[in-house]
Write a structure and sequence with these properties.
The complex is a heterodimer of chains A (about 625) and B (about 100). Chain A is mainly α. In chain A, about 70% of the residues lie in helices and about 0% in strands. In chain B, α1 runs antiparallel to α2. Classes of the chains: A mainly alpha (about 625), B mainly alpha (about 100).
């Protein structure tokens, strides 16, 4: 079965090409069959290959399609590499991607750019699959830039509105900063190791460098730069909240479930280099810890439903980075997978709510949807519970709890990481249930339009089931100790080493996490259901802080002062481009001589004859003098 | 023949040439300007003859024949042009024919 691996990215690519080349001339039915069908076929192929891969117990499968280019000793192949890590990623991308495509058929039904939307989505799925299947970093970079392009196209999908185009450009430019760092990292890798094949790098790097070597640290930091840009971590996180300008399925697929976790994938994939550079790995954790807190507090103050989810995405990816930073590789991948389920679910649910409320984004104008939209309410509630890590029944609890515990008990963990993760968990459950109470409880404030169709509710239900049950593939020591996922990932990603004497602490750590989650829900209940009168008082007392958090800790303003304004100033100062003066000077000179010589053509023949005579005399005398 | 010095011939040619040039410059009647050009041509021809006699070569006389031929052709074209100019501007004043100035 493995030889059909190439079909997985090829099918969405074919779908995208058909939809692009027909330029929207297909009927909506045909376009949706091609768009969703190609990804659905890819999902089926991926699931069959994955089952085959798991049941045969093989370690890796390598498929070389052709040599991409051959320059001296640099010959990256167009080749796919399937191992445990890519198995999980292709499953999530194709399966969640397929559900979101199905949802989009319902969601985008009345949109004029229907076919264009599916073309971009298919192209995105193809690029993302290339990214996670690539056997060398050049091919990975192709996928990396491909998803960046599709993200740009889809954020600015409704390009009629100027601010959407602005958000798209912002996302593209900010991620480009990280991509540049990553490209330099790839150049350094090639110049020191002479190869960009991932497996060769992973085997050669420990021989080439000792732990803490300067080169390894530099490369690790440059790769981290790329990951930070793509995964919207500090300090390049500002693009993600604005990326919510795109349609909700795009937010669900690209800016929550898959693309933004490409940075997590990159670091997990290149984990050997990060192990050789402990400083860089520590910084992965620090960035994750700070980001999860900053984004969590920002999410508390948002009123746009989708922006809450955007900040919570940044925060949850912060958890994944934290896990990577402490060397809990498989925990990061576990959380990635569960996060993909519940965050896609939440975004799709939010999209459905926004759709039935006639594009109302403001949570304070929602309310009382519990009885009007029961399916959306229950699935959204499950997603929210999973995000808040409600103990025992949700998948989010198991994945987040593992990170929380390892932040303390892991060999590279420490108390600060643990505290950051713990506070983050409390904040997460507060803002999550604030969102739920505001949206679904209380009195109805906006008229509910027509309900959501089956195409919208079925993906929600499937994702809700996964958000509940997905966690049972990996249970902690205290509860059954199931390690299906980490055992499966073990050939690719090493197990986390525990600090001695921390094994006993696991049960009370879980207890604290569970209590904090419930406390957070109660806080949200208290302020948004029970004593709604207190809200205005608190908001008035902490107005400045509220504004500060609302603006995402002022990062946009800071970057505006640091980069945008100086650049605009330079642009204004140099409006008459001084380099252009050289060219303009040539034109001016030619013009001047033209005017001067035109004066000599005065129509008086005597002047012409004198000119000839003077010229002849000059030439003759010059000839005589120089002779 | 031989006792005429070369310098004398060349000076005569030079004087003729300058006379022709000056009259081209100061005359306003186009026909007189044409005649002056003929004088300049003949001055050049005289210089060739003198030089040919000085070196005892036939080339000078060959050149003179060329010049005479060319002068005949030039006069025929020149007179035709003068006729046309006269048709156009009803005068033979060269300064009046300045409509092509830039």
């Amino acid at each position: 079965m493995n030889e059909f691996l190439w079909l997985i990215p090829a099918l969405p690519l074919a779908g995208a090409l058909v939809l692009i080349l027909t330029r929207g001339n297909l009927s909506r039915t045909v376009a949706s069959i091609i768009g969703a069908g190609s990804v659905g076929m890819a999902a089926i192929v991926a699931i069959i290959i994955n089952l085959d891969f798991i049941s045969s117990g093989q370690q890796a499968y390598h498929q070389v399609l052709w040599t991409w280019m051959n320059v001296d000793d640099f010959s990256p192949a167009f080749a796919f590499y399937l191992d445990a890590l890519s198995v999980i990623f292709i499953f999530v991308i194709t399966f969640v991607g397929f559900l979101i495509h199905i949802y989009s058929i319902g969601f985008m039904a009345d949109d004029s750019g229907f076919s264009r939307f599916f073309a971009f989505l298919n192209l995105f799925v193809c690029s993302m699959l290339i990214l996670v299947l690539a056997d060398n970093l050049v091919l990975l970079y192709l996928g990396w830039e491909g998803v960046g392009l599709c993200s740009y196209l889809l954020i600015g999908f409704w390009y009629d509105e100027e601010k959407n185009g602005y958000a798209a450009r912002k996302a593209f430019i900010i991620t480009r900063v990280g991509d540049t760092a990553m490209a330099i990292g790839l150049f350094m890798l090639f110049s020191t190791l002479g190869t960009l094949n991932i497996q060769e790098i992973l085997t050669q790097a420990p021989q080439a460098w000792t732990v803490g070597s300067q080169t390894a640290i530099a490369i690790a930091f440059l790769l981290l730069g790329g990951a930070v840009g793509k995964s919207a971590q500090l300090p390049l996180q500002t693009w993600l909240p604005d990326a919510m300008a795109g349609p909700s399925p795009v937010s669900a697929l690209i800016h929550a479930a898959t693309m933004v976790t490409a940075g997590v994938y990159l670091i997990a994939r290149m984990h050997v280099i990060f192990e050789l550079a402990p400083v860089a790995q520590l910084w992965v954790g620090i960035i994750g810890a700070i980001t999860l807190l900053l984004a969590g507090f920002s999410a508390l103050t948002q009123f746009d439903l989708k922006r809450v989810l955007a900040y919570s995405t940044i925060s949850q990816i912060g958890y994944m980075f934290l896990a990577l930073g402490i060397g809990a590789w498989s925990s990061a991948i576990f959380h990635f997978m569960i996060h993909a389920f519940f965050k896609a679910l939440l975004f799709l649910g939010a999209g459905a709510v926004i759709m039935v409320l006639h594009h109302e984004h403001d949570m304070f104008k929602m309310g009382g949807l519990k009885n009007k939209l029961p399916v959306i309410y229950w699935t959204f509630l499950i997603g929210a519970a999973s995000l808040a890590a409600l103990p025992f029944i949700t998948a989010g609890f198991y994945s987040k709890d593992q990170i929380l515990w390892l932040a303390w008990a892991g060999e590279k963990g420490n108390i600060w990481f643990y505290l950051a993760a713990l506070i983050g968990a409390l904040v997460t459950s507060i803002y999550t249930f604030r969102m739920v109470f505001l949206t679904f409880f209380g009195e109805e404030k906006t008229h509910v339009g027509h309900g959501a169709g089956r195409l919208i509710t079925i993906p929600l239900v499937i994702l809700a089931v996964l958000s509940l049950l997905g966690g049972f593939i990996e249970l902690p020591h205290t509860m059954g100790h199931v390690t299906l996922l980490s055992d499966f990932l073990q050939p690719v990603l090493p197990d986390v080493v525990l600090r001695p004497g921390t094994e006993q602490s696991e049960w009370w750590m879980q207890g604290i996490a569970a209590i904090l989650c419930l406390l957070g829900i109660y806080v949200a209940y208290f302020f948004y259901m029970k004593r709604t009168d207190l809200r205005a008082e608190i908001k008035g007392a902490t107005y400045e802080l509220n504004r500060f958090w609302f603006s995402g800790w002022g990062f946009d303003a800071l970057y505006d002062i640091l980069f945008v304004q100086p650049f605009l100033y330079l642009a204004r100062t140099n409006k008459n481009d001084f380099l252009d003066k050289i060219n303009e000077g040539m034109v001016t000179g030619a013009n001047f001589f033209h005017k001067t010589f035109a004066l000599t053509q005065n129509g008086v023949m005597r002047w012409y004859i004198m000119g000839i005579v003077v010229g002849a005399i000059l030439i003759l005398s010059l000839g005589l003098l120089l002779h | 023949m031989n006792n005429v010095p070369v310098e004398a011939g060349l000076i005569l040619a030079g004087i003729l040439f300058i006379l022709g040039l000056i009259s081209v410059l100061i005359r306003r009647n186009i026909i007189f300007m044409l005649i002056s050009v003929e004088i300049m041509l003949n001055a050049a021809g005289l210089a060739f003859i003198v030089a040919g006699a000085r070196w005892g070569q036939p080339d000078g006389q060959v050149m003179f024949i060329f010049i005479v031929t060319m002068a005949a052709a030039e006069v025929s074209v020149g007179l035709a042009l003068i006729l046309q100019i006269y048709h156009q501007i009803k005068t033979l004043d060269g300064d009046a024919a300045n409509r092509m100035k830039g």
